[in-house]
Amino acid sequence: MTFPASHLAPTEPERNKEAASLIRQVGDDLNFRLRQLHEQLLEQVPDVDRIACALYEPSDDMLRTFVHSTRQGVAIKGYEFCLSESASLSGLAASRSVRILDEIADVVNAANPHSQWLLNEGYRSSFTVPLYERQEFIGFLFYDSLKPAAFSKKVQRSLEVYNTLISLTISNELNLVRSITTSAQVAREFASLRDFETGNHLERMAHYSRLIARELAPRYDLSDEYIEHLYLFAPLHDIGKIGIPDSILLKSGGLNPEERALMNTHVQKGIDVLERMIGEFGLNTLPDSQVMRNVVAGHHECLDGSGYPNGLKGVEIALEARIIAVADILDALTSHRPYKEPWSVKAAICELERLVERGKLDGDCVQALKCHLPEVNTIRDRFKDS
């Protein structure tokens, strides 16, 4: 018996395509709002062809592409750069001054991918504005034009309002996200959560998750906004453990079936805690809050349906949850535990591959780690437990 094509079960590539489409919907809220502001700006300043924001992370001195509105050509994504390696940008951040380039080709060379991209895309002039939040430097706002000397004093004055609007839009969302993560940390400390979820574990997990997501970005069309939110949300994955008794959480030996069942309730407890925080901070209408929910709800699901709490299979499990699962297990294997010594990264990757063969973990996520073993080792060493 044959069926119309519309009734056939979707193939794996089709399911991946659908999943990527959903990711774009839930992970591009700031990009969408920036595009709206860009459209309004063009009515006053028609020569601004690109607006982009790069966020700064003090822990590793890196600038990373975050959100953008690019009218034509190929947008640069997944790019990071050490701030201290640029005297010009470091000076802007320190002095709180802006930079005008009337002819980009006369000033920059193709020494780094960003400069090469600017030249390849034909951008002629630019206006760079450092961003601050509570007196702390948080990144840069870049305006680029295909025309030379597009950013006159008059244009700069017209952009002042948009600088403020864009800065507030970005900082407000980051503040909401940080309020959630800070509240989660306070809740953990208040509950005297003393298992292996140390601050350094959470830091390593977040960096591993971002590393995986950046490698998967081309295949799943992941935005830089999605990747940075995943990085920020990763430490929330086991927040439900604040509701698990210490007698189970800190038990040195194996858990019996009753204890294991109670331990497994930490996922639902985490969902309940998160939903309460989302409601209190008014995040219900933000699409990015769904990424946060998926991180907490799905990180113990397995591709073969043997995970919990819902026994989801394959791409029924959100990509962000699949990424977190791999990052979490990697860190557990390579960290000291009362019952074991830390594994080498090489041995841990081999174990992850065995779990892929058994149908537990996402092979793309594990392969992403294999492609970046030096970075994995750097993250592990930088954020060692004291």
UniProtKB/TrEMBL annotation:
Species of origin: Cyanobium usitatum str. Tous
Sorted UniProt keywords: Hydrolase
GO molecular-function term, one example from the UniProt record: hydrolase activity
Gene3D superfamilies reported for this sequence: 3.30.450.40, Hypothetical protein af1432 (1.10.3210.10)
Pfam families, alphabetized: HD_5
Name recorded for this polypeptide: Phosphohydrolase
Signal peptide positions on this chain: none
Domain called HD-GYP: residue spans: 176-385
PANTHER family: CYCLIC DI-GMP PHOSPHODIESTERASE TM_0186, CYCLIC DI-GMP PHOSPHODIESTERASE TM_0186-RELATED
SMART domains cross-referenced by the UniProt entry: HDc
PROSITE patterns named in the record: HD_GYP
InterPro entries, sorted: Cyclic_di-GMP/3'3'-cGAMP_PDE, GAF-like_dom_sf, HD/PDEase_dom, HD_GYP_dom
